[in-house]
Design goal:
alpha+beta, Nucleoside Triphosphate Pyrophosphohydrolase, 6-stranded mixed beta sheet, 4-stranded mixed beta sheet, 15 strands, NAD(+) diphosphatase, NUDIX_hydrolase-like_dom_sf, NUDIX_hydrolase_CS, NAD-cap_RNA_hydrolase_NudC, EC 3.6.1.22
Length: 309
């Protein structure tokens, strides 16, 4: 088992994630010391990943990300570039491009994330999340003055009050609720494709623990009591800047399900056999059930539960 996989898998009793969530993979050095180094020298040996406004990047026919030589953009780092990390003497940067990736066949993480290798997956995930943060943090929350990028893209400093702000991540819980035997509780949102079901999820509120959030979200979304809440693993989900924290919990399948109006279109208990059957198909679909894609932590949670003995 790789170090990344071991870090993502629960050490507690019961089922575990079947493997590391795909967007949790990363191989580059991204320590703070790297960001404090001489930016010009790091830029000289750099490669730049272009990301459009929808989080799409160019994917080569071999499934690798396409990078540009940093020298194409000048001898010094452009102020809009962000440093992602370094590996084998090469630094990797990201830059927002005005190009329309949709017209050029570029792909986002939802589409290409499962195909990327560990290095590319980590770089694109970081790039999308970091660039999204910059796009929405152009003004100081204290005095309203414009902010500027500093520390090679890992902070912004206010031009008015000199306040420094760092990239934000919004924590969200995602929970696989099961009956302690062979049924799992799945639900679907109204905006999803027909028959698409997944586990329950929601954002953590101010002053709330992760476990309390799990219990509240399950109660709000489907009206049942979640117990024996335990942690499974996590995955960055930069849409726009979330961190999905995976949990498992148990609920009583005899309790009536009360889907939240306007948020949950349908909720139902699904057998382990049906989840296994869907998992064994190429696209995770059987009649009446379409599972979340493999790039999501929800898929890893469901697979871990379905085939746990």
């Amino acid at each position: 088992m790789t170090e990344a996989c071991a870090a993502a898998v629960s050490d507690g009793p019961g089922f575990r994630l079947d493997s590391a969530p795909l967007l949790s993979r990363s191989t580059v050095d991204r320590t703070e010391l790297l960001r404090d180094g001489p930016a010009a020298e790091q830029w000289t040996a750099g490669r730049v990943l272009l990301v459009d406004g929808k989080g799409r990047a160019q994917i080569a026919p071999d499934g690798r990300l396409v990078y540009e030589d940093a020298a194409v953009f000048g001898e010094q780092p452009t102020p809009r570039a962000v440093l992602l990390g370094a590996q084998d003497g090469t630094t990797y940067w990201a830059l927002r491009t005005e190009r329309d990736g949709a017209q050029e066949g570029w792909q986002d993480l939802r589409v290409a994330g499962a195909q990327l290798d560990d290095t590319d997956a980590g770089l694109l995930t970081t790039a999308v999340g970091l660039l999204n943060w910059h796009d929405h943090s152009r003004y100081c929350a204290v005095c309203g003055a414009a902010t500027n990028r500093v520390k090679v893209g890992w902070a912004r400093r206010c031009s008015g009050c000199d306040r420094e702000e760092y990239p934000r991540t919004d924590p969200a819980v995602i929970c696989l609720v099961h009956d302690g035997a062979d049924q799992v509780l799945l639900a679907r949102q109204p905006v999803w494709p027909p028959e698409r079901f997944s586990v329950l999820a929601g954002f953590v509120e101010v002053g709330e623990s992760l476990e309390a959030c799990v219990r509240r979200e399950v109660q709000e979304e489907v009206g049942v009591l979640a117990t024996e809440v335990r942690y499974l693993g996590s995955q960055p989900w930069p849409f726009p800047r979330s961190l999905m924290l995976g949990f498992a919990a148990i609920a009583d399948p005899t309790e009536p399900l009360r889907p939240a109006d306007g948020e949950i279109e349908e909720a139902r208990w699904v057998s382990r056999a049906d989840v296994q059957a869907a998992m064994r198909t190429e696209d995770g679909i059987i009649p009446g059930l379409r599972l979340p894609p493999s790039v999501s932590i929800a898929h890893r949670m469901l697979k871990g539960w379905a085939f746990w003995a």
